[in-house]
């Protein structure tokens, strides 16, 4: 990363002077205001293509030169975006092939954004040209810190070019049609392909029930998106090999009161091709359906998953200092919550807090979206003042930038399992909820201040004390071997119902649980019962009773020890929770989906057996989150009060406040939303 950022958190965000070129007094204000708000980084050019190339081949970069120089003059840095997320009118008009085609075969007309075809040769050529112009012009500008490729890549196209690429992708993967027909089980309904030209993308007008096909289509969409991104990077890598490259990832779930990583693109694959992971974070702070701590837990989960993609600091490329405009109800963050949510980003490994956007737009689609500078153009504005106060604080704690994180617990998540599980028929359609269920497991650790990495099965998890891998529906034999080796060499694994059911083509394993998992868990799975939403069972577990919901696997213990049994239904008295000693380690199987009370009990025991809290600086308080970062000299901790009440904390180690350099008293009282940043010096 650029030297400038050694010991500086980036603070700033999307700056769109191209909306204000006719307002010179506004642009002048911006620079002065940026200094007042302790802004050190701006992202330029995200949707500026039409301002940069108003006519084909006619480049107007002077305005951007000026902004670059002005940002440099105030000591700031630029993250320069490539503009492919929003193309100019002339481009779509002259080359309609660049517009996306939907699954019904309808061609889009120009408009909106993020809706180009990923295959179109002409779009790729035009993007290459504009990116090359930018790289040549600004590649050696001292203010250039980083590249931001496009914006929030997403979606899919079904045009002729994409269909051709789809068939090529399948030919490369399967070689011949017999293999493809088998992998997709096309003999069901007798739809075997006899010629490659018959293979089309999934469509509501054609094939839309073939699970293997849908799964491959999602993989293809991820690969095409990455391929397009790499194509965008070519001229940039060539001109500026030393400038890091990122693209902004997303989260989703707002419509269902969830907050989870984006499901549509396999970011674990994409992350291999970016120099630094960045993402746009918009949790529903101060909502009317859950506590602030519950929102914070979900937000923490997404941060941890994006940290874990590279196990390196990431960036928050966008967040709002106040409200968004695209919720049903767009609530303002209450005073103090911006600072709290920003500090949480850093606590989980972000090296930045960047906003969408610097200045609120005067018109069009997002004019009521929050920004640092509002329509009042005032620095007395509450939001502006909170941003400025936050920026000043960041300067005091800059030494944390670049530090790493230390974790003993890994949660496994697999994008492909999620696609397959969501797509399959059967079970409870609204209750599968794989990422949300992982979050329920995660919640225990978050409330206890035990840091968690969220890895994919491809990543190395051999060094973790505990691996939690429930609902890992799709499992290759490679993953099975990895899990067996992990446990055999002393690891502790938690699996559950829905784990290891299908292979990489979403074909069921025949003959019950695959042999390696049978040995690992020491059980046989006989059935999987789906419960209605209001239906519950109970399990007895170590003299306690816990409610279960949604799913009950009916299992038979072989070598496993039975720790909990069902209390009702045709499987009452049969095992629900088992423990199998395998090699030097232990594998638990949770046959039922349980209440959170059970997790508290179950993981509480594992946490003490595995010493998961030995680095803790305080006794846990579920509304106060403590997350740490570390380097060779110091362990840093962010102590964050996610409640509207004052909270008391008992510290169990001596810590020093990083901002005041004063020792922190053992009985620490935290005001509502207060954050303390402290450290422990290493010997
Ligand atoms: C109908 C069809 C079958 C099968 C079942 C599933 O009866 O004829 O082919 O799809 O529904 O319930
Ligand atoms: C996304 C986009 C931005 C803006 C914000 C609004 O993150 O990248 O351009 O639309 O959402 O929240």
State which percent range the strand residues make up: 15-25%
Nearest-integer average pLDDT: 97
What separation lies between the terminal Cα atoms?
28 Å
| Contiguous uncertain segments of 5+ residues | none
Structural class: alpha/beta
Task: Offer a few descriptive terms.
single chain; 683 residues; alpha/beta; eleven-stranded mixed beta sheet; six-stranded parallel beta sheet; 17 helices; 28 strands; 31% helix; globular; binds alpha-D-galactopyranose
Summarize the structure.
By secondary structure, this protein is an alpha/beta fold.
Fold and architecture overview:
With 683 residues, the protein is of the alpha/beta class. The two termini are 28 Å apart. Helix 14 packs across helix 17. It is built from 17 helices and 28 strands. The radius of gyration is 26 Å and the shape is globular. Strands 12, 13, 14, 15, 16, 17, 18, 19, 20, 21 and 22 form an 11-stranded mixed sheet that branches. Strand 7 and strand 8 form a beta hairpin. Bound molecules: alpha-D-galactopyranose (2 copies). One alpha-D-galactopyranose binds at residues 151-152, 280, 282, 318, 324, 356, 366, 369.
Helices and strands, with pairings:
Layout: E1 10-15, H1 24-36, E2 41-44, H2 49-52, H3 62-73, E3 77-81, H4 89-94, H5 121-138, E4 144-148, H6 160-174, H7 177-183, H8 211-239, E5 245-246, E6 248-249, E7 251-252, E8 260-261, H9 267-270, E9 278-280, H10 292-310, E10 315-318, H11 337-347, E11 352-355, H12 382-396, E12 409-412, H13 415-423, H14 434-447, E13 452-455, E14 466-468, H15 477-488, E15 492-496, H16 515-521, E16 523-530, E17 536-541, E18 544-557, E19 561-566, E20 575-582, E21 585-590, E22 592-594, H17 596-609, E23 624-630, E24 634-641, E25 647-650, E26 656-657, E27 667-670, E28 675-681
Parallel strand pairs: 1-2, 1-11, 2-3, 3-4, 4-5, 6-9, 9-10, 12-13, 12-14, 14-15, 15-21
Antiparallel strand pairs: 7-8, 16-18, 17-18, 17-19, 18-22, 19-20, 20-21, 23-24, 24-28, 25-27, 26-28
Helix pairs in contact: 5-8, 8-13, 10-14, 14-17
The chain binds alpha-D-galactopyranose (GLA) (2 copies).
């Amino acid at each position: 990363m650029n030297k400038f950022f050694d010991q500086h958190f980036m603070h700033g965000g999307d700056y769109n002077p191209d909306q204000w070129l006719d307002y010179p007094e506004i642009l002048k204000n911006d620079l002065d205001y940026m200094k007042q708000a302790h802004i050190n980084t701006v992202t330029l050019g995200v949707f500026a293509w039409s301002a940069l190339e108003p006519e084909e081949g006619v480049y107007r970069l002077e305005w951007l030169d000026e902004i670059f120089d002005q940002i440099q003059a105030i000591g700031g840095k630029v993250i320069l975006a490539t503009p492919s997320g929003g193309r100019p009118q002339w481009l779509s008009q002259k080359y309609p092939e660049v517009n996306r085609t939907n699954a019904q075969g309808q061609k889009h007309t120009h408009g909106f954004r993020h809706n180009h075809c990923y295959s179109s040769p002409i779009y790729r050529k035009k993007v290459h040209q504009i990116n090359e112009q930018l790289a040549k012009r600004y590649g050696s500008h001292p203010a250039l810190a980083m590249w931001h490729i496009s914006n929030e890549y997403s979606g899919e196209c079904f045009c002729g070019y994409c269909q051709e690429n789809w068939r090529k992708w399948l030919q490369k993967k399967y070689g011949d049609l017999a293999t493809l027909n088998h992998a997709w089980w096309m003999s069901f309904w007798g739809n075997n392909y006899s010629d490659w030209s018959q293979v089309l993308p999934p469509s509501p007008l054609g094939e839309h029930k073939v699970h293997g096909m849908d799964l491959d289509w999602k993989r293809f969409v991820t690969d095409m998106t990455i391929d397009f991104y790499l194509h965008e990077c070519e001229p940039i890598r060539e001109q500026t090999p030393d400038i890091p490259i990122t693209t902004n990832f997303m989260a989703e779930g707002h419509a269902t009161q969830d907050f989870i990583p984006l499901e549509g693109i396999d970011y674990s694959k994409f992350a291999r091709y970016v120099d630094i992971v960045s993402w746009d974070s918009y949790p529903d702070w101060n909502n009317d359906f859950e506590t602030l701590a519950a929102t914070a837990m979900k937000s923490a989960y997404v941060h941890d998953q994006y940290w874990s993609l590279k196990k390196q600091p990431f960036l928050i490329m966008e967040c709002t200092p106040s409200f968004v405009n695209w919720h049903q109800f767009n609530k303002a963050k209450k005073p103090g919550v911006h600072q709290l949510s920003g500090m949480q980003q850093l606590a989980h490994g972000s090296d930045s807090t960047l906003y969408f956007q610097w200045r609120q737009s005067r018109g069009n689609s997002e004019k009521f979206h929050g920004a640092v500078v509002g329509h009042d153009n005032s620095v007395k504005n509450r939001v502006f003042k909170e941003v400025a106060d936050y920026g000043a604080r960041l300067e005091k704690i800059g030494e944390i930038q670049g530090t790493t994180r230390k974790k003993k617990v890994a949660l496994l998540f697999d994008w492909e399992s999620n696609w397959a599980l969501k797509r399959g028929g059967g079970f409870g359609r609204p209750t599968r909820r794989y990422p949300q269920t992982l979050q329920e497991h995660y919640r225990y650790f978050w409330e206890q201040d035990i840091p968690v990495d969220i890895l994919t099965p491809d990543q190395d998890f051999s060094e973790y004390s505990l691996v939690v891998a429930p609902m890992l529906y799709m499992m290759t034999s490679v993953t099975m071997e990895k899990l067996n080796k992990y446990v055999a060499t002393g690891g502790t694994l938690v699996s559950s119902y829905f784990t290891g059911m299908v292979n990489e083509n979403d074909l069921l394993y025949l003959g019950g649980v695959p042999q390696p998992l049978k040995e690992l868990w020491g059980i046989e799975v006989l059935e999987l019962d789906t419960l209605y939403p209001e239906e519950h069972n109970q399990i007895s577990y170590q003299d306690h009773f816990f409610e279960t919901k949604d799913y009950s696997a009916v299992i038979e213990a072989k070598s496993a020890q039975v720790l909990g049994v069902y209390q009702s239904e045709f499987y009452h008295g049969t095992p629900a929770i088992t423990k199998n000693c395998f090699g030097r380690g232990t594998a638990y199987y949770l046959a039922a989906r349980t209440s959170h009370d059970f997790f508290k009990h179950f993981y509480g025991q594992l946490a003490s057996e595995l010493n998961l809290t030995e680095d803790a600086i305080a006794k846990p308080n579920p509304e106060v989150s403590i997350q740490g970062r570390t380097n060779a000299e110091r362990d840093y901790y962010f102590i964050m009060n996610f409640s509207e009440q004052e909270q008391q904390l008992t510290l169990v180690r001596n810590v020093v406040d990083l901002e005041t350099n004063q020792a922190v008293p053992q009985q620490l009282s935290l005001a509502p939303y207060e954050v303390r940043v402290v450290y422990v010096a290493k010997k």
